[in-house]
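Box 4.2: Ligand-aware structure prediction
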Amino acid sequence: MLRPLQYHIPLSEVIFAVSHAIDLVDPSLNQHNEKVAFVALSLSQEMGYSVHNSLEIAYAALLHDIGSLHISIPLNDEGCFDRSQESFPKHAFWGAYLLENCSSFSFAANMIKYHHTPWHKVENRISLMEAEGAQIIQIADIFVEHTSAHPYAYSFKSSLTEIIKSLSGKTIRKDIIDHFLHLLAKEAFWLSALQSDKSSFRKSLLHGSGHALLTWRELTEVAHFFSFLIDMRSHFTASHSASVSAIGKNMAILSGFSDREVEEIMVAGYFHDIGKVAVPVSILEKPGRLTDDEMLIMQGHTFYTREVMKEMSGLEKITSWAADHHETIAGNGYPYCIEGNDLSSGARLMAVADIFTAILEDRPYRKGMTRKEAMAVLYGAVANNKICQRKVDLVENNFDLLFKALKETEELSNDRFKAFWAKAMIIKSDGKPMKKVM
Ligand SMILES: [Fe+2]
Ligand SMILES: [Fe+2]
Ligand SMILES: [Fe+2]
């Protein structure tokens, strides 16, 4: 029987990793989630919430715009979320639906679902703490939106205070506004909220989670959640990360990796392309050949995979297996040009699993390659000193088994996505189901 793996990743670090991934999508966000979380934490404490509950509200704030990763929220010319689009308000409901399905994050689902909803529509729908948490996140979001573009926002303290007052009893419950006004009266709050360096805030959030440590099983579920985040951004590769994970797992078993390493490879596969959240959807979804400039942007994704995973301590080995999948034996890969001798067996395996999956998976604009074509591509890469010959021989000798695993995973992932789209598309912008489903 498999012994449980000794990983103890704090929930707070995992939430910072997700928040980092959300921030990568929109260059103008500039730590938006962290700023909103700081204000939400300050207001929760001002309202007398316990340390535990204040932290839960702050963690929910770190995740509050996760639904914006959804592909159908278009970016404007500056590459930022287009808030004028009809689909924009739905991000709260899509975000909640995503989080509901991951046990480590489900505590935040209702707070996020209603973070753009007025008090009279949220009260009595969910628990009091969740409803108040949603209101706290909403007002923190409004404060950050009004202040983040202005380095000297403190100078228009009085006009912003008037804006906040105007929400009282309408969007936000009156006593919550009163607590916030109390906070706004303190200079220290403004100066801490507006300072660009949030390291002291980060410290209090990271160390404040007490015993909230993820078990290995929970970490695996979170890794699967990450794979869903990236796979849902492109219709073309909707099962790619899940498939690389499955192929990696099978190759690791065939290579004689230990039971523990087989599970670690699986997790690395789920994470390997998370950095693609930093790549515009127009490039991810481009059916034809990428231009040289587009290719450079695309190649940045493994750098960002490492940046996101670095938020979680203790995952160094899995991080290098995941983030080094485009390094080569010749040492001319990206982004670090790691020499072949320094390339771990896990990274070599991941590189082959990634190419195998990419060339054999069906995409809407082309069928996957035949066995003959795929093996020619893999051995061509061996001849160019890019990938490991032993791993490719392993694929050649076990092709049918690996191909079957790929197709099974594709089918499972596609079913999961169909269920997600079905739910996502029937939600109106006020969160209620549509009467008629197409
Ligand atoms: Fe939002
Ligand atoms: Fe990749
Ligand atoms: Fe990949």
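In the box above, the bound molecule is fe (ii) ion. The radius of gyration is 23 Å.
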